[in-house]
């Protein structure tokens, strides 16, 4: 995604490109959203539309605008790595505002991810500082959007795809209104010359037969389909497992940027990628790894952790008792059914 946006960024105003991709991406998902709303008889009140509009403002106007600007200021591969850290920020936001539990493995993953970002940013030899700061802000706000989409969508009865579609369309509309304000002469003249891209922002300038395939790829596939599938997968397998998609970005983006854009990878970037991947892997597999290590250690040192064995005994008792309860309930249901059939045959008929 970052590579395609980097290429398109040289032909379009960055704000304009952000507006186009989310407008077309939202429209591409609209038929599926309408079908879902009708099939499930979903009714959204005024408060619900306000929540959707706020979610759209966060993702389109704030997060992705900063994201698009950051790509134009620094390497696409670095920004891709920044965005891949958003599930970790989502965990922090969920812990602070939703009181969701944060395990020790998640804390370790958070620390490793932040260390990896510092290694990549390399604050002692900082280059493209503004682009990195904007990319980091974009990733944090994206994490906020992920939590908002999940919470508001659940309250409104919307699935991940329909919530994504409506947020995109509202966000594109809000961004379009702000773009219109920049055409007011008083506003346009007040913008400093060094920020000319924020004055009289065009809407569809630069679209031609040559650029149309790139625009459709960015808008429909990268924006509409990719975002929609991400939130659908989050519903099916959970937020941590769905975040597997972001494991691919830090490893793949720098390689593609090297071959397509000619962006070099230094030792700091490679080492930082490895640390972030390790942090993400711990987030997804940490509990399984922890219990595996605990089991191995317990087998080798049974006397060192008797409390673990006691926990296993209690766990077995609970599982066995639950199994016994289910078996007893099944037997009673079958017995009652047989009794009812037997009694119905013994009763005289109306004839």
UniProtKB/TrEMBL annotation:
Q: Can the keyword rRNA processing be found in this entry's annotation?
A: no
One matching Pfam family, short form?
EamA
Q: How does it sit in the membrane?
A: Multi-pass membrane protein
Where are the stretches annotated Disordered?
323-351
Q: Where are the transmembrane segments?
A: 19-37, 49-70, 76-98, 107-126, 132-153, 165-191, 211-232, 239-261, 267-286
Give the record's GO CC terms.
plasma membrane
In the UniProt record, the signal sequence range is none
Give the UniProt keywords, A-Z. Answer: Cell membrane, Membrane, Transmembrane, Transmembrane helix
Subcellular location field: Cell membrane
All copies of domain EamA, residue ranges: 4-121, 130-284
Q: What main location does UniProt list?
A: membrane
Family to which this protein belongs: Belongs to the EamA transporter family.
Protein name listed in UniProt? EamA domain-containing protein
Native organism is Companilactobacillus heilongjiangensis
Taxonomic lineage from the root: Bacteria, Bacillati, Bacillota, Bacilli, Lactobacillales
């Amino acid at each position: 995604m970052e590579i395609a946006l980097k290429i398109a960024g040289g032909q379009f105003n960055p704000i304009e490109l952000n507006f186009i991709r989310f407008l077309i991406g939202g429209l591409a998902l609209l038929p599926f959203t309408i079908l879902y709303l009708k099939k499930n008889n979903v009714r959204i009140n005024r408060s619900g539309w306000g929540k959707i509009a706020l979610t759209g403002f966060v993702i389109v106007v704030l997060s992705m605008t900063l994201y698009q600007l950051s790509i134009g200021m620094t390497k696409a591969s670095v920004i891709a790595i920044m965005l891949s850290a958003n599930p970790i920020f989502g965990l922090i936001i969920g812990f602070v505002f939703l009181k969701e539990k944060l395990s020790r493995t998640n804390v370790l993953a958070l620390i490793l991810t932040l260390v990896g970002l510092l290694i990549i940013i390399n604050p002692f030899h900082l280059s493209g500082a503004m682009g990195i700061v904007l990319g980091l802000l974009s990733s944090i706000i994206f994490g906020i959007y992920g939590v908002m989409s999940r919470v508001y969508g659940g309250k409104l009865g919307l699935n991940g795809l329909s919530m994504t579609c409506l947020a995109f369309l509202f966000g594109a509309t809000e961004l379009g209104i702000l773009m219109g304000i920049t055409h007011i002469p008083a506003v346009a003249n007040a913008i400093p010359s060094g920020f000319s891209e924020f004055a009289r922002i065009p809407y569809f300038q630069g679209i031609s037969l040559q650029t149309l395939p790139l625009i459709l790829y960015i808008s429909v596939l990268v924006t509409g389909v990719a975002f929609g599938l991400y939130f659908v997968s989050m519903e099916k397998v959970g937020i941590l497992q769905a975040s597997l998609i972001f494991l691919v970005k830090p490893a793949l983006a720098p390689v593609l940027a090297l071959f397509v854009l000619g962006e070099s990878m230094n030792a700091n970037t490679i080492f930082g990628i490895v640390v972030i991947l390790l942090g993400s892997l711990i987030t997804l597999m940490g509990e399984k790894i922890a219990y595996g290590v605990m089991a191995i250690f317990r087998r080798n040192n049974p006397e060192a952790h008797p409390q673990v064995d006691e926990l296993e005994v209690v766990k077995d008792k609970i599982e066995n008792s639950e199994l016994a309860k289910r078996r007893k309930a099944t037997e009673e249901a079958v017995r009652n059914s047989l009794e009812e059939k037997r009694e119905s045959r013994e009763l005289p008929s109306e004839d």
